[in-house]
Design a protein that fits this description.
With 319 residues, this protein is of the alpha/beta class. It has one domain: Alpha-Beta Complex (Spore Coat Polysaccharide Biosynthesis Protein SpsA, Chain A). 38% of the residues lie in helices and 21% in strands. It is built from eleven helices and 14 strands. An eight-stranded mixed β-sheet has the order 1-10-7-8-5-2-3-4, sandwiched between helices. Strands 6-11 form a two-stranded antiparallel sheet. Helix 2 packs across helix 6, helix 3 runs parallel beside helix 4 and helix 7 packs parallel to helix 10. The termini are far apart. The mean pLDDT is 90.
C-alpha cells in the first residue's frame, strides 16, 4: 500500500507553480470548460469581501479569466456578510431560498449541496469564506489539473496551516482535527487516501459530473465524506492535490473542534458500517456555578442524496 501511495504522490501531487496562468487559460479555452467558484459563508463579513475582490480582479477580469461564475451562499448570517459580498461583486444566494420545498438543515455540507442548484460550471470550486490574506493561487491551483488533465476529477488544496499569526506558531499545527482524527482514520480504513496532506481542507474543486453523483453529509463531515466517496466512485488516480502555500484563517476553540471531530467520525463510521450505527450525540463539559456541567450536542447524521436524483436539478438540466 505504501508503494501505491508513493506512486500516487509522484503522479498526482503538484505545486501551483507547475501550471502558469497562461497555460490554464489556453487549456480552458481549448476544452470549452466553465468554472464556478462557491464560497459558503456564515458571519464572515471581515473576510469575504477581500476574497471576492481578489477572485474578481485576478481570475474573472484581465489577462487570465479562469472563473466564469462567483457565488457566495449565505447560510443565515446575522452580520453584513451578504451585503459585503454583494458590494465586492459576488452573486449572493441565500441557503433557504434554494430548493425551498426542502427545509434547510444547519451545516456547511448543506450549503455546498444546495450550491449545485444555483451554479452551472463544469468545474465547481469550493473556497471557505474565512480565509485571511487570500491568494488567487488557491483557486488557480485546484482548478488547474481539472483543466489540463482529462482523467483528474477531484482536486484538494494542500498548504501549511499556522496555528497563530506567526511562523513561530508552527506551520503544521492548524489542522488539529485532521491530525488527531481524520488522518488516523483514513490511514487505518482508507489507506489509499493516506497521501492527502489536508483531507479536511475546505478548498477543493471537482467536476460537476462527479459532484452531482455523490451524497453530501450536511455538516462538518462533508469533506471526508466527499473524499472517501470520490475514491470509490472514480478511483485514486482520478484524485489529486496541489500545494498552494499557506492558509490563514480563524481557529475554533477546543469544544467546537470536538463537535467537528464527532461529525467527521460519524461520517466515517457511516461509510464503514451502515448497518451498525453509533449513538449520534456528544457530551462535553463546561465549568459552571456548580462545577463541571455537561452540555450535550447532536452529531450531524443527515446526508443529502446525490444532486442528480433531485427533480429540480434534473429539470434544470433538461431545460
Amino acid at each position: 500500500m505504501l508503494e501505491e501511495v508513493e506512486s500516487w504522490l509522484s503522479r498526482r501531487s503538484w505545486s501551483v507553480a507547475d501550471r502558469p496562468p497562461h497555460q490554464l487559460v489556453a487549456a480552458k479555452r481549448a476544452s470549452g470548460s466553465t468554472v464556478s467558484v462557491v464560497l459558503p459563508a456564515l458571519d464572515e463579513q471581515e473576510t469575504v469581501g477581500q476574497i471576492v475582490s481578489v477572485i474578481r480582479t485576478e481570475l474573472m477580469a484581465g489577462p487570465t479569466p479562469l472563473v466564469d461564475e462567483l457565488v457566495v451562499v449565505d447560510s443565515g448570517s446575522t452580520d453584513r456578510t451578504a451585503e459585503v459580498a454583494g458590494a465586492a461583486g459576488a452573486r449572493v444566494e441565500h441557503r433557504d431560498a434554494i430548493l425551498p420545498r426542502l427545509p434547510a438543515l444547519p451545516g456547511k455540507g448543506e450549503v455546498l449541496w444546495r450550491s449545485l442548484l444555483v451554479t452551472r460550471g463544469d468545474v465547481v470550486c469550493f473556497v471557505d469564506a474565512d480565509l485571511r490574506e487570500f491568494s488567487a493561487d488557491f483557486v488557480r491551483g485546484i482548478v488547474g489539473p481539472l483543466l489540463t488533465e482529462p482523467d483528474v476529477h477531484f482536486v484538494k488544496a494542500m498548504y501549511d496551516r499556522p496555528f497563530g499569526g506567526s511562523p513561530a506558531a508552527g506551520a503544521g499545527q492548524g489542522g488539529r482535527v485532521t491530525e488527531l482524527l481524520a488522518r488516523p482514520v483514513l490511514n487505518m480504513h482508507w489507506p489509499r487516501l493516506a497521501g492527502f496532506v489536508q483531507p479536511l481542507g475546505g478548498e477543493y474543486a471537482a467536476r460537476r459530473s462527479l459532484l452531482e453523483r455523490l451524497p453530501f453529509p450536511v455538516g462538518y463531515g462533508v469533506e471526508l465524506g466527499l473524499l472517501v466517496d470520490a475514491l470509490h466512485s472514480v478511483g485514486l488516480d482520478a484524485l489529486a492535490q496541489v500545494d498552494v502555500g499557506v492558509r490563514r484563517h480563524r481557529h475554533q476553540d477546543g469544544q467546537a473542534l470536538g463537535r467537528m471531530a464527532a461529525a467527521v467520525y460519524r461520517t466515517a463510521q457511516l461509510r464503514l458500517a451502515r448497518d451498525h450505527l453509533l449513538w449520534p450525540e456528544l457530551t462535553q463539559f463546561e465549568r459552571g456555578a456548580r462545577g463541571f456541567e455537561p452540555r450535550t450536542y447532536p452529531v450531524d447524521t443527515e446526508e443529502r442524496p446525490p444532486m442528480a436524483s433531485v427533480a429540480e436539478y434534473a429539470a434544470r438540466r433538461v431545460a
